[in-house]
Design goal:
Layout: H1 5-19, E1 20-21, E2 24-25, H2 32-45, E3 51-54, E4 60-64, E5 71-76, H3 90-105, E6 113-117, H4 131-137, H5 143-148, H6 157-162, E7 181-189, H7 194-198, E8 202-208, E9 210-219, H8 236-254, E10 259-268, E11 278-287, H9 290-311, E12 314-323, E13 326-327, H10 330-344, E14 349-352, H11 357-363, E15 368-373, H12 389-411
Parallel strand pairs: 5-6, 5-7, 7-15, 8-14
Antiparallel strand pairs: 1-2, 3-4, 4-6, 8-13, 8-15, 9-11, 9-12, 10-11
Helix pairs in contact: 1-3, 1-12, 3-12, 4-11, 8-9, 10-12
The structure holds zinc ion (ZN).
Zinc ion binds next to loops.
Length: 412
């Protein structure tokens, strides 16, 4: 039996009915609605005969037995943000169910095929994204911080996850799940405007952006707005303002998808009658290439020194967070390109701005690739999130095609 992509779209609508309301999807991890979605998923997979297991981090696995080689993993996340969209995360899960059904009806696959529904990708309740996948990848190292987190109602993270049989003490034992993994495939909505602007349904994701986040502190001198001549001012905001505009030119110069954002500036004393004495500016810079990311940062720092001397003020930089770019597997990128071209004619390669579970799996050393399907208006994390049904169906067919190619690669 070939796959039935229209069934996936129908099942996604069914899930929306079951776990959403007039404000959108409500499948926040570690809640009753999330558990209802996991129970529902179990009924959908049942006919394939895949064996279910919930690991130490709360990830839900379904395994179809196969030959002795390393397993093919298909993954997604059924959890959503509050008032979320109907596709983010669960499209991947339901498309993978369809692939599993197809494979289950054929002779036993050459290697085991496993569907994973990652626990708490969104981090919506406790502010910590990629919970289950980072535990399985072995990169979860912030257990002490996690133990202190609480939701808006004061329920602690350890209590909330404990209700689902998960404990921070042994969550990283989920690592054993990736020991025999040969490849990881994830389909996701793009959540951005690129594919729509190119009028393409599907694209191959090259990897996830590296990120540099900095706090830039500008120091001048508070002075009376009426009595201080323009030429005598040491205005901290002038430096921040120049940098906020200069990062556009820097992103253009570095190119290849570089993005820079000055997300906030806090001024002190912050009153209308004083020149600004200190301006604290937050900067976020992203690139897929580690050297180019370093160049983005270096150019911004150099520009800030120039602006500081022009304005007769001081500037200081502090890194607040960073992550290196994560590049997906070259062989799988080629296979994904082929799979998309065969299904829809044209492929496109693009980086991912947001992080995904796939980044964690890739970091753990498992060959990984993602497919993106077009998002209408680039919207996500809102009930307005949408993708044309015909594009959703193409994405299921592309994932299925890629799964076949990957199985051949793993057993070859
Ligand atoms: Zn997602």
């Amino acid at each position: 039996m070939p796959i039935d992509p229209a069934r996936t779209v129908a099942e996604l609508r069914e899930l929306r009915e079951l776990t959403g309301d007039e404000d959108g999807a409500q499948r926040v991890a570690w809640t009753e609605t999330w558990e209802r979605a996991r129970d529902w998923l179990r009924t959908k997979v049942a006919s394939t005969g895949a064996v279910e297991e919930i690991d130490e981090a709360g990830n839900q696995w379904f395994t179809l037995a196969g030959g002795g080689g390393k397993a093919l993993l298909l993954g997604g996340h059924i959890d959503s943000v509050p008032n979320g969209g109907w596709l983010d995360g669960c499209l991947n899960v339901m498309a993978a169910v369809e692939v599993l059904r197809r494979i289950a009806e054929e002779d036993a696959p050459p290697v085991p095929v496993r569907l994973v529904n990652w626990a708490d990708e969104e981090g919506a309740r406790f502010g910590r994204s990629l919970f289950g996948s980072s535990a399985a990848a072995g990169s979860m190292k912030d257990q002490d911080e996690l133990a202190k987190l609480a939701d808006r109602d004061g329920v602690s993270l350890p209590d909330a996850i404990g209700r689902y049989g998960v404990s921070l003490d042994n969550a990283t034992e989920a690592r054993s799940q990736l020991e025999n993994a040969g490849a990881y495939l994830e389909l996701h909505i793009e959540q951005g405007p690129v594919l729509e602007s190119l009028d393409l349904p599907l694209g191959v994701v090259l990897g996830t952006f590296g990120v540099e986040r900095s706090r830039v502190t500008w120091r001048g001198q508070a002075a009376h707005a009426g009595s201080t001549p323009m030429g005598r001012r040491r205005d901290a905001l002038a430096g921040a303002a120049k940098l906020a505009l200069e990062i556009r030119a820097i992103a253009r110069e570095v190119g290849d998808g570089a993005v820079c954002t000055s997300g906030n500036v806090v001024c002190r004393p912050g009153i209308v009658t004083s020149v600004v004495e200190t301006a604290e500016q937050l900067l976020d810079q992203r690139h897929l290439d580690a050297d180019q990311l370093a160049r983005l940062l270096a150019l911004a720092k150099a520009a800030s020194e120039r602006f500081a001397s022009e304005e007769n003020i001081e500037v200081g930089w502090e890194r607040i967070w960073n992550i290196e770019p994560i590049l997906f597997d070259e062989t799988l990128i080629e296979l994904a390109d082929e799979a998309i071209r065969e299904v829809s004619g044209t492929s496109h390669r693009l980086p991912s701005g947001p992080l995904h579970d796939a980044a964690e799996v890739s970091r753990a050393g498992v060959p990984t690739v993602m497919l993106f399907v077009q998002s209408l208006r680039g919207l996500s994390h809102t009930k307005l999130e949408d993708t044309k049904p015909e594009h959703l169906e193409l994405s299921v067919a592309a994932l299925d095609n890629l799964a076949s190619k990957t199985l051949a690669w793993l057993s070859g």
